[in-house]
Recover the amino acids of this structure.
């Protein structure tokens, strides 16, 4: 694992985008998994700019990290709605270039479908994730096995509460469907991105503790190729 800290969110976003763009340039058929939520919005802006400036994503497969179950995909708070608004709507992609969990299909079959698709195409080249205040990655909540692939997740109380920020009205969040921590560990370039003072506590906890399934983010200690990319605010409590 390597930790990198940058001056502010703008610089952090640019550096994360550079990492992803570099993979895309080297491997035009790459499989790129991206999180939704607030953290990667700046990265998407940079990538959109790169694409306008000639970065070729015409053969890339983008895989959406996770989705709320029991929430209509057209709800502005769904993961796919956020990704559409912040990224996909701004980029010319064919339908088959975007892989997401279909929450209206059988969930167990969906996990198998997405697992198969990823492995059949040679694994993930990049997996960009944010971090939850409880250390979750995707919807891999505390207690999730580090060996998990795609699965259904019983959302932690903290996630049910913090997830409200994405919705226009109070919304009951109970369950999610998510890629697993093993996908993260097996990805060729797994990136944890965090910004802002709100993430400082959990990032120092993650970086100062041994790997434990009680704090999913600590899996980074087991992954030599993992990048933890922070802005100064999120890095402020890390012991140097
Ligand atoms: C989103 C996701 C979540 C978020 C995390 C941080 O697809 O899987 O794990 O990455 O909760 O959320 P933000 O970025 O909104 O602070």
């Amino acid at each position: 694992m390597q930790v990198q800290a940058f001056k502010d969110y703008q610089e952090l976003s640019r550096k994360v985008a550079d990492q992803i763009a570099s993979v895309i340039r080297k491997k035009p058929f790459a499989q790129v998994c991206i999180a939704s939520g607030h953290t990667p919005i700046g990265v998407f802006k940079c990538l959109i700019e790169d694409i306008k400036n000639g970065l070729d994503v015409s053969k890339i497969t983008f895989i959406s990290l996770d989705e709320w179950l029991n929430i209509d995909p057209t709800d502005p708070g769904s993961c796919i709605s956020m990704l559409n608004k912040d990224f996909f709507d701004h980029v010319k992609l064919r339908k088959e270039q975007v892989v997401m969990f279909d929450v209206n299909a059988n969930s167990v079959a969906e996990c198998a479908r997405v697992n198969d698709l990823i492995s059949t195409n040679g694994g993930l080249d990049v997996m960009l994730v944010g971090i939850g205040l409880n250390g979750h990655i995707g919807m891999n909540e505390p207690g999730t096995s580090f060996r998990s692939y795609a699965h259904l997740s019983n959302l932690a109380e903290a996630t049910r509460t913090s997830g409200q920020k994405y919705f226009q009205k109070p919304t009951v969040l109970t369950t999610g469907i998510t890629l697993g921590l093993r996908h993260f560990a097996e990805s060729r370039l797994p990136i944890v991105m965090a910004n802002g003072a709100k993430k400082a506590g959990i990032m120092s906890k993650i970086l100062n503790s041994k790997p434990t399934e009680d704090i999913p983010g600590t899996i980074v200690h087991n992954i030599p190729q993992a990048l933890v990319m922070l802005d100064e605010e999120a890095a402020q409590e890390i012991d140097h």
